[in-house]
Design a protein that fits this description.
CATH topology of the largest domain: Substrate Binding Domain Of Dnak, Chain:A, Domain 2
Number of strands: 16
Largest sheet: 6 strands, parallel
Bound molecules: iron/sulfur cluster, FE4-S3 cluster
Shape: globular
CATH architecture of the largest domain: Up-down Bundle
Structural class: alpha/beta
């Protein structure tokens, strides 16, 4: 195996024996093979597009399959085997459609030689495993080509996840699926370095569009997040814990648990659900339990009730854990020993009754903390405060905004972000989104004239809100360049969605981003240099040095 897609990768080079995350060689290889067959589908999809044949369902499948390969999403080899089979089936169906149309148009059979990803086939899992060993990342020998191909593919994964969330809420755009597939095809071709860089940058544009689509899907379904005090203590009834990013699952769980005598709590990236009007109204929706994803081995124990994982981050269970029988996955998430809740039938809802019945037999959660977190500062809420914010900047009460969005992770070096939040001057405001916030969202950092010093826009995809806010401020101050704003970017990354967000920021023209706790292993020295030269991306330094630089606008 070889995997270097996340920040925790072994020695910041690549996991080769087993993932630091716990991913087995078998799973890693099946993921490689799945992506390989997705490239084959994409080759035919591109050909079919030339003949004006489009197949939205297949585009969506490609997005979902990519989503499944994100760190900490799916640990179930059986699911990957069935996804490879489905991918092969879809590829063949698309091929048949295309070749028939081709023959009709040209009066002869299609006989162009295609990349092996479009022709390889098998139905035997043993052959899957063999083939998988020959299609991994290292088969691209040139380090820079590999780096650009993987930067593109890794960025696509987050876009794919966000596109799937939007699709679940009924919003889809063919151009997003088309780009994902075009980009996958590009990795099977010998392109020039400039062509590859262009595609990477274009993927940032598509990421922005996809986050905008998801923002529209979320806000039109559930309203705009509003400033909310989220309870972090517990009540005395048994509860269900829901984690991940899928708001449709959140909605259906809340409606199905109403009046059932059990409470609902969020974990990790589901925290922002507490700020949507459509969810806040439920009396049995208690608040948020615990911290970010990597605390789950302890927190799922003490929660006592069933846990529903709707997306990442799900981490492997420890031996002798007590929650394996209480763990449920759904959507693209999977774990070999956990119960999987099937997709909703057309026009219907998922059936969470088994989870609810189990909850009734469980002990209530153990209280691990008490108090409240202030959240809900997505674009609408911040723009409602815009006058106040602009005034505070003009008067000098707010000297600088620091965007500290992204992911959390278990590595000790991430204390940097807690220390940064604590040490930033009192006239700075932190803008955040994603689970990185758990490093400082329970600290009492005060407010500036009623504006909290931590403005939490929500999930990682809500970084879109941060972009909207920055663009509005640029307008309010009559600036030409987003980089003239008193905003610094100190982004934490762990999994691939953060890479997507980074590419989106680059597309919006943001320069000077600090990225930590380490720079991605998939950036070769030459590719890293391009990003440094073009966008002034930099690694984090010490907290004190970074504060000094950021306050000086560097
Ligand atoms: Fe290693 Fe990260 Fe890949 Fe897991 S996801 S195998 S930790 S690089
Ligand atoms: Fe967190 Fe996994 Fe990335 Fe959505 S839940 S930000 S790490």
């Amino acid at each position: 195996m070889f995997c270097f897609q996340c920040q925790e990768t072994a020695k910041n080079t690549g996991c080769t024996v087993k993932g630091v995350c716990g991913k087995s060689e078998e799973t890693a290889n099946l993921q490689d093979l799945l992506i390989y067959v997705l490239k084959g589908i994409s080759i035919y999809a591109e050909k079919a597009r030339e003949l004006e044949i489009s197949d939205r369902q297949t585009g969506k499948f490609v997005a979902q399959a990519l989503f499944a390969t994100i760190t900490n999403v799916n640990w179930d080899n059986e699911r990957f085997i069935s996804m490879v089979r489905e991918a092969l089936k879809r590829r063949e169906a698309l091929k048949d459609k295309f070749t028939a149309a081709y023959k009709e148009k040209h009066g002869k059979d299609f006989d162009e030689a295609l990349h092996d990803a479009a022709t390889w086939t098998s139905d035997a899992p043993a052959e899957f495993h063999e083939r998988a060993k020959t299609v991994g990342i290292l088969t691209t020998e040139d380090e820079d080509v590999r780096s650009l191909r993987e930067l593109l593919t890794i960025g696509l994964k987050g876009t794919a996840a966000y596109a799937d969330h939007a699709a679940i809420l009924g919003l889809e755009q063919d151009d997003i699926y088309d780009f994902i597939m075009t980009a996958l095809v590009s990795t099977t071709r010998d392109l020039s370095v400039n062509e590859m860089i262009d595609l990477v940058l274009k993927s940032g544009e598509v990421a922005v569009n996809t986050m905008a689509l998801l923002d529209k899907a979320n806000t039109s379904a559930y309203g705009h997040q509003e400033m909310s005090e989220v309870n972090i203590g517990v009540r005395s009834r048994p509860g269900i814990l829901i984690s991940g990013h899928d708001l449709k699952d959140m909605e259906e769980l809340l409606t199905q648990t109403e009046g059932a005598g059990v409470d609902v709590y969020t974990h990790g990236e589901m925290l922002p659900a507490n700020c949507y009007p459509a969810f806040k109204k439920y009396e049995h929706f208690v608040g948020n339990y615990g911290g970010s994803w990597w605390h789950q081995n302890q927190e799922f124990e003490s929660f006592n009730g069933p846990i529903l994982m709707t997306t990442n981050c799900l981490v492997p269970l420890k031996k002798n854990n007590t929650y394996q029988d209480r763990l449920f996955t759904t959507g693209m998430t999977g774990y070999p020993d956990a119960k999987h809740i099937p997709d909703r039938p057309q026009g219907g809802a998922k059936d969470f009754s088994e989870i609810i019945e189990l909850a009734k037999t469980c002990e209530p959660p153990v209280e691990i903390e008490t108090g409240k977190i202030t959240a809900g500062f997505a674009r609408n809420q911040v723009l409602a405060l815009a006058d106040k914010v602009v005034e505070a900047v003009k008067s000098g009460a707010i000297k600088r905004f620091v965007v500290m969005a992204g992911c959390d992770g278990r590595h000790k070096t991430r204390n940097y972000y807690t220390e940064m939040a604590e040490k930033l001057p009192k006239d700075t405001v932190i803008l955040t989104a994603g689970c990185a916030k758990y490093r400082y969202n329970k600290l009492d950092l005060g407010n500036i004239g009623g504006i909290p010093r931590v403005l939490d826009a929500g999930q990682c995809n809500d970084c879109y809100s941060l972009a909207v806010i920055a663009l509005k401020l640029k307008e309010a101050f009559g600036l030409d360049d987003i980089n003239e704003l008193p905003i610094s970017y100190d982004i934490a990354w762990y999994e691939q969605k953060a890479v997507t967000v980074l590419l989106a920021l680059l597309h919006l023209g943001v320069t000077g981003i600090r990225l930590g706790p380490t720079l991605p292993a998939f950036l070769s020295p030459n590719v890293a240099k391009v990003l440094v030269d073009k966008f002034d991306i930099k690694p984090i330094d010490t907290v004190d040095a970074d504060i000094e630089a950021m306050m000086a606008g560097k």
